[in-house]
Design goal:
This protein is mostly beta strands. Helix content is 9%, strand content 32%. The two termini are 28 Å apart.
């Protein structure tokens, strides 16, 4: 979903389906280990939270779905000190699954990396990353 000031914060939702190339465009790295798919988040340009290297999100067996939720604060260049924010909900499947499975039912793996974008300790959902990962394994 995109909502920005020039459009009057009118929501724009988009669902895109593709292979590993689209995953890289979203900052994810997909690799195979036998039949299992390893999903990692690549370092990005976010001002907050900072990430200094790849982070393994989860491993999916054939037919499984993973969901990754995160939010970020970005800054413009030094000549434009504006801020903008993104919140991601990314679903990844290992192999073919029914399209409505992303919407209905719980994912097999669920990582919630949303943070309070101004520091602080409160984050949406009330769970820490590790607590949420334990709940969905």
């Amino acid at each position: 979903m995109l909502a920005d000031e020039p459009s009057g914060y009118m929501r724009h939702d988009e669902v895109r389906a593709a292979g590993a190339g689209l995953a890289r465009d979203c900052g994810l790295w997909l690799s195979l280990d036998d039949a299992a798919m390893i999903v990692e988040r690549l370092p990005g340009r976010a001002a907050f939270p900072r990430q200094h290297g790849p982070a393994r999100l989860f491993t999916l067996a054939p037919g499984q779905i993973g969901r990754y939720r995160a939010n970020f604060r970005f800054t413009g260049c030094a000549c434009n000190p504006s801020w903008f924010y993104e919140e991601w909900v990314v679903h990844v499947s290992n192999g073919q699954v029914e399209p409505d499975r992303f919407i209905q039912g719980a994912p097999d793996r669920d990582i919630d990396d949303r943070v309070h974008l101004y520091g602080g300790t409160t984050r949406p959902g009330g769970y820490s990353h590790r607590q949420q990962a334990r709940l969905t394994r």
